[in-house]
Amino acid sequence: MLDYDEEADAYDASRGGEPRAEAAARALLGLIPDRPGRLLDIACGTGIVTRRLAAARPGLRVTGTDLSAAMARRADRRLPGTVLRADCRRLPFADATFDAVTGVWLLHLLSGPADVRAVVAECARVLRPGGVWVTTVDKARAHDVGSDIDAVLAPRPRPAAQDAADAVAGYAAAHGLVPAGRAAFPGLGQGRSPRTTVTDLRRGWFTLLAPDDPRTEEFAARLARLPDQDRRRPDPVFSLRAFRKPAVG
User: Fold this and answer.
1) Neighbouring C-beta atoms of residue 197, cutoff 10 Å
2) What pLDDT, in 10s, does the model give residues 44-69?
3) What would you report as the CA-atom Rg of the chain, rounded to the nearest whole angstrom?
4) Which residues, including other chains, have CB under 8 Å from residue 221's CB and lie 6 or more apart?
5) Inter-CA distances, 156 with 189, 197, 218, Å
6) pTM of the model
7) By CB count within 10 A, which of 50, 145, 187, 188 is most buried?
């Protein structure tokens, strides 16, 4: 996993910046009830999306959390006094505190099903009856856009997807949450080029191959032979799923 304390300063610029954040926030807002209340954005990172949620819904009291101290500090600059450092597997909030909980680009980072189940359990716990939890799912699949890069990388050994949509829906159901909608948004500016993909591959991203595995260089060599080395292929399209905690009675 990346060291997000080290990544914090460059994170926004390397992840599509403001356009991607705007697209993500717009999709999230379409799944969140438009009424006053409290919203928790877990793993909020630099707060680039969180800020938009707060600005778009003045009736919502928005709180952000992130495990990375550097990320939380950057988010707090955008939303002063509303962001705290916290582990989303053990949220520091009482039961039934929030009317909505959001988590973008989180579940795929977790180390295994036990951690994913723990996060889902916490989101369900802090939701009020009638509240909605929204999360991204199938992040790795979003990057498979049918390009020549994908064709080269297809045989690589891949990590198990911790955020597979069906698995996440099952974890949600185990905690009494019911499906409440879905949406998608483009990862603007995040299409892969062959050259950037080689760099990421050698960092150990999106594969189980170690950087020093000879097969890593075999894939790198095939990527280096593709045309248009610096042309980005189509942007990924990320998926959101929403789940509601049924109202009592």
Assistant:
1) 25
2) 999 999 999 999 999 999 999 999 99
3) 19
4) none
5) 24, 13, 11
6) 0.91
7) 50
DSSP 174: H
pLDDT at 148: 98
What fold, for 4-143+160-191+234-244?
Rossmann fold (3.40.50)
Angle at 247 between CA 245 and CA 162, to 5 degrees: 5
Instruction: Give the residue from 133, 122, 224 showing the smallest Cα distance to 177.
Output: 133
* Per-residue model confidence as pLDDT tens digits over 147-177: 999 999 999 999 899 999 999 999 999 999 9
Give the integer Cα–Cα distance in Å for 179 and 221: 44
The amino acid occupying position 92 is P
Asked if residues 117 and 170 have their Cβ atoms less than 8 Å apart, the reply is no
CA distance 28 to 104: 9
- At 121 the pLDDT is 98
